[in-house]
Here is the input.
Amino acid sequence: MHQVHTGSSPSYLSSLVTATANIQFRQRLRSADTNRYEPPTTRLKFGECCFSHAGPKAWNALPAELQDLMEHNAFKRQLKTFLLKARSLHECLAAGYIKCVSIGPRGLGLD
Here is the structure.
């Protein structure tokens, strides 16, 4: 999805996703100013596995700091760091080492 966002992906992949800013009725909304993509609605659970649905859902779950990165290598490095922190945080929560987690504009915060 990062390559789709930066315009360096093949056209057949770019044509499968729709940016929220490109949807006609959402151009005047605040969501049009974000880097979000709109996953298509599916009738079956099987449809949620395709790139046009799973790609935007995964991209929208990333923090804005990652979505704003334009250089591919920097994005991969920051994504790896983010995923490793999320995994270790999940393991700490499961073990009971951490009681409360807040996700704010500055990222993950531990209470």
User: Anything to note?
Assistant: The CA atoms of residues 21 and 82 lie 26 Å apart. The chain has a mean pLDDT of 76. The beta strands are 18-19, 37-38, 101-104, 107-110.
